[in-house]
Structures are given as structure tokens and as C-alpha cells.
């Protein structure tokens, strides 16, 4: 009877340890996935081990690093587009003022010519 109780307790302990060794890393992977879904692209966990869960965590780590690089590239591209659009707007304003000046320069001689007597 005592042996049975000890065996059942030992089996329960092994079951608990085995379950914990699986659910704890999966919980960490779930936390990483939730943080990525919220826009947090830092990965603060060290990945150790060679099992499938470690491979999953490593894949999540690589994914967050790739997403962070994509965000940086998009941000840099946006800044480049913003700068280019400001330069285009400035060039358009300059062209508009020069066009108005040229139109004014052409209008004055035309006005004088229209006032002159016909030959």
C-alpha cells in the first residue's frame, strides 16, 4: 500500500514536471506573439535548447527581428518620400512665382503695343 502511494506520488510529480517543461516555454512563445501583435518588436528571451519549442521560440525571435528591419526600412522610405515631396512643393512654388513674373513681363509690352496707333 505504501509503495503504491509513493509510486502514484512519484508519477504525479513526473507528470507535473513534464507538463511544466512544455507549458512554460509555450507560454513564453504566446507572450512573444501577443507583444508582436501589439507592435512590440523586441525579443527579450534567450533561446536555449534543441527541442521543437525552442525552434518555435527561435523562429519567433527571427520573425520579430525581420519585422523590426521592415519597420525601419518603411520609416526610412517614408522620410525620403516626405523630403522629396517638400522639395517638389518648394520647386512648384518657385516655378509658379517665376511663371507669374514672366506673365507680368509679357503683359506690359502687349498692353503698350495695343495702345500704340496702328500703322
Can you give a write-up of this model?
The chain has 119 residues and is mostly helical. It is 84% helix and 0% strand. It has helices spanning 2-37, 52-115. The model has no long low-confidence stretch (mean pLDDT 87).
* SSE series: HH
Q: Which regions contain 5 or more consecutive residues with pLDDT less than 50?
A: none
Number of strands: 0
Distance between the termini: 135 Å
pLDDT averaged over residues: 87
Question: Structural class of the helices, strands and pairings?
Answer: mainly alpha
Q: Compute the CA-based radius of gyration.
A: 36 Å
Helix content: over 70%
Helix count? Answer: 2
Instruction: Note the main sheet.
Output: none
Strand residue percentage: under 5%
Rough outline:
rod-shaped
Structure, briefly:
The protein is mainly alpha-helical. It contains two helices and no strands. The longest helix is centred in the last third of the chain and has 64 residues, at 52-115.
Q: Mind sketching the topology for me?
A:
Elements (H helix, E strand, L loop, with lengths): L1 H36 L14 H64 L4
Helix pairs in contact: 1-2
Key attributes of the depicted protein:
119 residues, mainly alpha, 2 helices
Amino acid at each position: 500500500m505504501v509503495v503504491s502511494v509513493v509510486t502514484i506520488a512519484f508519477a504525479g510529480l513526473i507528470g507535473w514536471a513534464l507538463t511544466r517543461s512544455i507549458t512554460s516555454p509555450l507560454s513564453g512563445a504566446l507572450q512573444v506573439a501577443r507583444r508582436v501583435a501589439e507592435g512590440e518588436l523586441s525579443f527579450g528571451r534567450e533561446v536555449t535548447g534543441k527541442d521543437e519549442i525552442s525552434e518555435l521560440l527561435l523562429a519567433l525571435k527571427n520573425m520579430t527581428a525581420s519585422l523590426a528591419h521592415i519597420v525601419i526600412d518603411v520609416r526610412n522610405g517614408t522620410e525620403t518620400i516626405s523630403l522629396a515631396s517638400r522639395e517638389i512643393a518648394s520647386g512648384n512654388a518657385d516655378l509658379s512665382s517665376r511663371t507669374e513674373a514672366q506673365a507680368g513681363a509679357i503683359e506690359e509690352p502687349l498692353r503698350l503695343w495695343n495702345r500704340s496707333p496702328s500703322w
